[in-house]
Design a protein that fits this description.
Layout lengths: L13 H32 L15 H31 L6 E8 L2 E6 L4 E3 L1 E5 L4 E7 L4 E5 L4 E5 L5 E5 L5 E7 L11 E7 L1 H9 L7 H11 L2 H5 L17 E3 L5 E3 L2 H9 L22 H13 L10
Parallel strand pairs: 1-5, 4-10
Antiparallel strand pairs: 1-2, 2-3, 5-8, 6-7, 6-9, 9-10, 11-12
Helix pairs in contact: 1-2, 4-7
This protein binds dinuclear copper ion.
Length: 314
């Protein structure tokens, strides 16, 4: 029988996180011993009434002070450098990641795959492939935590956060909400299934054929009436969205903004905050009329037409 104190290290960054953790733990234990061991010895050695040499040894105070200031500074800076390196590898996803959306709400996790698969409190992944999560919340702050991958990311209402990791071992792991979010916070958890690439492919294609995320987004684009203004030859003059994704957009105030997920999100919810150059602030806000899941579908659609050439408005 095993009694696991530590979760498995099942992602590419898990090991470096563990090294850092144990180094900090070891260093703290060393300092603790350095202070407390002499303290306990002196407690007995210099106890009142005991014969002991109590003459001031006249240490070179300046030298002692400087030494025990400078050495720990460099040790701390070493930890800082290791931590910063770990932070940057964990914050900057590599190219060609598998993109998955995670939406937290009281009290469940909803997962959307680009292929259209949806799951609740379960996350299926292929082994050996870097995965980028885009996280959104329908209500309050949650936090998405997969101990075996050593990742934890706040999920904040009103914005997207992202996180990436690469699973290294086939297996079943747990994920949790690690930010207190109300009565059933402790039940807001689920299971990660890391499958072989073939098994993952089978999982993706099983069941009824479904719309991809981008197709669902395109349907929404029509249902919500976005196409009425943003598609060619209409009465209202609105910017075309083909070829927009990740490009620089000139704004009315002379600045530029990159058309990333955040910009598209803001354009839908706060349409008057950043007006594309040459257009009027006439778009209504969709705040309150659209869920986080739908927002992510619309973004997937706009991304899918990111390489198309915009048609000129007549
Ligand atoms: Cu969601 Cu705690």
């Amino acid at each position: 029988m095993t009694f696991p104190i530590f979760p498995k290290a099942a992602s590419t960054t898990a090991v470096q996180t563990d090294y850092l953790y144990f180094m900090l733990l070891g260093f703290s234990a060393f300092i603790l011993a350095l202070v407390f061991f002499p303290m306990i010895v002196f407690l007995f050695k210099y106890r009142r009434g005991k014969k002991a040499n109590r003459v001031d040894p006249h240490l070179p105070e300046m030298k002692v002070e400087v030494t025990w200031t400078i050495i720990p500074i460099f040790i701390s800076l070493g930890f800082f450098a290791l931590g910063a390196r770990a932070y940057f590898t964990e914050e900057v996803p590599p190219d060609g990641t598998l993109e998955i959306n995670v939406i937290g709400k009281q009290w469940m996790w909803k997962i959307q795959h680009q292929e259209g698969n949806r799951e609740i409190n379960e996350l299926h992944l292929p082994v050996g492939r870097a995965v980028k999560l885009t996280l959104a919340s329908e209500d309050v702050i949650h936090s998405f935590f997969i101990p075996a991958f050593r990742i934890k990311q706040d999920v904040v209402p009103g914005r997207f956060t992202t996180e990436w990791f690469q699973p290294t071992q086939i297996g079943v792991y747990h994920f949790y909400c690690s930010e207190y979010c109300g009565a059933d916070h402790s039940k807001m958890q689920g299971t990660v299934f890391v499958l072989s690439p073939t098994e993952y492919q089978n999982w993706l294609t099983r069941g009824e054929p479904k719309n991809s995320l981008a197709q669902s987004g395109e349907n929404l684009f029509r249902q919500l009436g976005c196409s009425g203004c943003h598609v060619n030859s209409q009465a209202v003059h609105a910017p075309p969205l083909e070829g927009l994704y990740e490009k620089l957009v000139p704004l009315n105030d002379g600045t530029f903004v990159r058309a990333d997920d955040k910009y598209i999100r803001d354009s839908i919810l706060l349409p008057n905050s950043q007006i594309a150059a040459g257009y009027q602030p006439v778009m209504p806000t969709f705040q309150g009329h659209i869920t986080e899941e739908q927002l992510l579908q619309l973004i997937a659609y706009i991304k899918s037409i990111g390489n198309e050439t915009p048609q000129k408005n007549p």
